[in-house]
Amino acid sequence: METYKGKVRLVIKNYPYKYRDYSHMAAEAGLAAGDQGRYWEMHDLLLKNSPRLDRDSLIRYAKELGLDTRAFTASLDTMKHAAVIERDKKLAVDMDLYNTPTFFINGRKVIGNRSYEYLKKIVDEELKNAKK
Amino acid sequence: MRKNSISVLLPVILVLVSCGVVFAGRLEPFAGVPVQVKNPQTPEKAELGKQLFFDRRLSGDGTMSCATCHMPELAFTDGQDISLSYPTTKNWRNSPTLINVAFQKYLFHDGRAKTLEEQALFPMMSAFEMNKNLDYLEEQLRQVPEYVEVFRKVFRGEITRGRVAMALAAFERTLVSVNSPLDRFLRGDRKALSDEARRGLEVFEGKGRCADCHYGVNLSDDKFHALHVPENQALLNDPRVTATMRFVAKVYHYRDYRNLKEDPGRYLITKKKQDWKAFRTPALRDISRTAPYMHNGVFAALDEVIDFFDNGGGPGNKALKPLGLTADEKKALKTFMEEALAGEEIRITYPAVP
Fold it and tell me: A-contacting residues of B 86-115, CB under 8 Å?
């Protein structure tokens, strides 16, 4: 994103895996951290520590990030952002998407973890097309 | 009678002598897909196979179909160094293209299956691929009226795992690379290749020794060679990959599977010493569209593959020797592979999955 400052907009959608015990709570943890302006930091911690994503671990990650853990825990316990998560899941199903991560770069679908170079090539091509 | 025998034998002997020490196989144009006696090809069966190919019911959690790792848009690969895998697991090998898979005598990088019908069930059952219980799959598909009807029409019988595999195989036999510049060139159109691609072909058949193993219609000898391809560093310290590797080794009765640290290749199947780290010679049709390369996807581009062979393969291998190609020769070789081997794009109309 730093390389393409002002040229690329990143939109992220939640798609917790349906057969994982803590995946929905982990999605909530990301959004709850986002309420305190620390979405990406939490996002990185979740990926780094997966599959240790139980409630106590999530609260520990919030502490690591210096978040207001009372507000964070309340979000987890009430699933404050459940409607957003469910909306995102429905969008994925409507679009016939079942794999994470799935990227859409100006409509070009890319499934699975990809290297920076792989994504950069597509972004560069799309930016070139956009200029035409 | 005797005279006739000699006149037939003589050209054969002359051809063998002219090859000398180097055995360079002959490249052949596409002339049709091998016929399957036990699974006759019909358009209806191939269409059913296409539906199944895109059906996520074939995976345990309903998130994966065959097309997940063999995407039509990516020349029936997934474009990854290591193939996509069942959620929460990790694969250990590259997803090979399905283009011209009908020609292969062995399937998988280690050749563990000899027919597409046999092959098709492996990924479905595999814990780190589609993770599907086949008894359950049969019952699940039998609950889909459209499938029940089509299977009855196509096979004159009910849905079985064997027939699922036969239909998938029939679809896969439609994925062929046709009318490439090489095909046209081999049929006599001398203008089908650019000058550089023709120079590349000379390197391919001569100094580059590629045609020692890459020959025939599919540019493969269908054999296994231990080239000692470098390890993919991304895999070495990933416990999920280690679990996958040892799981496969255990399934194939590799005695010391719990200490296994590298991919044994064909050895897992044959237990023959010469097959240690040997992998199937890949077909080369449409090669420019199927990166990354090698069984572990360790080379991102054809240049890296050419350099690997030019350097005589990996340390300690006995199959290859340094080639001493010049920069121009390498460039021509790459041009040949990119231009000459690219067949017409295979266009797939996505089926309506019932």
Answer: 87-88
